[in-house]
């Protein structure tokens, strides 16, 4: 069996998801390829997976004709989905949504593309995230729906021991854009830096992405809040090294801060938990799949900076609670988000769709 996964560019959570699920399915003797229509810095994370970068119709047709994929999973790119049918692809075509930013943005996009998806796709796929499930059910009835959790590499990505830093680190992962809510990150960081002058803020992301206006505002806020000496930017860190950084943040006595308005899944949060790095996050829907307040992490109401700071102080100062959260979080991710579970769900989906084709 041969499957192609597609997305716009190899970056962020989608790059991570595609790479991990290819590994999961390879273990079940499924050959997986990747197609991106635009190149990106995350491409260097990809090893031993056939990967193609092109938006040229003729090149995509040659690829599809040559490889004869049993199934193609197209994430978000409705134009590419339609192109695949137009150039003659007759295999299973699955349209996937992983997250589309804020609730309004997601709703507007899904209303706009619903008709084209229903006319073209054999099925739709999305993670166990309540707002995505609701929007998909509202906008795309009449086509098979498949909904299951994304995987994490629970065997090869995890805690690594390093000498602890002599200062606490507050980490943040994301693009400088509205949905990632960098403003709250800087406001919370400024409050904590005033309370704990030795702390540092580490930002991880692909600096080639994001709107120039947002990045300019970010720099203005950094200076206005007097955080320049506290802020360390880590640009385009190879994914395999993120386990080291998350482990270092956890052992420093700090934590990962996630300030997103809305998340479809939230790979950075789940991976921090896997690396014994405690997490403080907004209650942003998809996060609820793996983070329970004071059990596997801490939640705070978005925009409530005072409560966020209070929760951060608890996470940094209450040693028994911190140890308990770290232990329970790592165990939860390993138990519920393995590659094996994802592969089983994915193969059941394909079997169901193949059976439906035979019946019809």
From TrEMBL:
Pfam families, sorted: Glycos_transf_1 (PF00534)
Name of the protein in its database record: Glycosyltransferase family 4 protein
Cited InterPro entries: Glyco_trans_1
Origin species: Paenibacillus artemisiicola
Residue ranges occupied by any Glycosyl transferase family domain in the UniProt entry: 165-331
């Amino acid at each position: 069996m041969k499957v192609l996964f597609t997305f716009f560019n190899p970056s962020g959570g989608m790059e991570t998801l595609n790479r991990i699920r290819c590994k999961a399915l390879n273990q079940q003797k499924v050959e997986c390829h990747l197609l991106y229509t635009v190149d990106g810095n995350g491409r260097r994370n990809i090893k031993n997976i056939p990967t193609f970068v092109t938006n040229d119709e003729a090149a995509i047709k040659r690829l599809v004709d040559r490889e004869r994929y049993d199934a193609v999973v197209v994430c978000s790119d409705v134009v590419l989905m339609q192109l695949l049918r137009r150039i003659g692809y007759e295999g299973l075509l699955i349209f996937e949504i992983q997250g589309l930013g804020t609730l309004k943005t997601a709703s507007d996009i899904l209303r706009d593309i619903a008709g084209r998806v229903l006319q073209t796709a054999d099925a739709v796929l999305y993670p166990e995230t309540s707002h995505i499930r609701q929007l998909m059910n509202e906008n795309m009835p009449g086509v098979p729906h498949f909904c299951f959790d994304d995987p994490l590499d629970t065997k090869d990505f995890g805690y690594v021991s390093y000498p602890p830093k002599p200062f606490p680190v507050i980490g943040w992962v994301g693009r400088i854009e509205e949905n990632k809510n960098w403003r709250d990150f800087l406001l919370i960081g400024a409050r904590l830096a005033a309370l704990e002058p030795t702390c540092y803020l580490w930002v991880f992301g692909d600096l080639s992405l994001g709107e120039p206006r947002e990045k300019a505002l970010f720099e203005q806020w950094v200076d206005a809040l007097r955080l320049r000496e506290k802020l360390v930017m880590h640009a385009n860190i190879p994914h395999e090294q993120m386990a080291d950084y998350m482990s270092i943040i956890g052992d420093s006595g700090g934590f990962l801060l996630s300030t997103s308005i809305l998340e479809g899944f939230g790979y950075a949060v789940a991976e921090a938990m896997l690396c014994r790095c405690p997490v403080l996050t907004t209650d942003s829907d998809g996060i609820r799949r793996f983070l329970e307040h004071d059990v596997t992490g801490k939640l705070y109401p978005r925009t409530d900076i005072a409560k966020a700071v209070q929760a951060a102080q608890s996470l940094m100062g209450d040693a028994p609670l911190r140890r308990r959260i770290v232990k329970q979080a790592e165990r939860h991710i390993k138990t519920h988000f393995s590659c094996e579970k994802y592969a089983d769900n994915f193969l059941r989906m394909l079997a169901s769709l193949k059976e439906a084709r035979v019946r019809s």
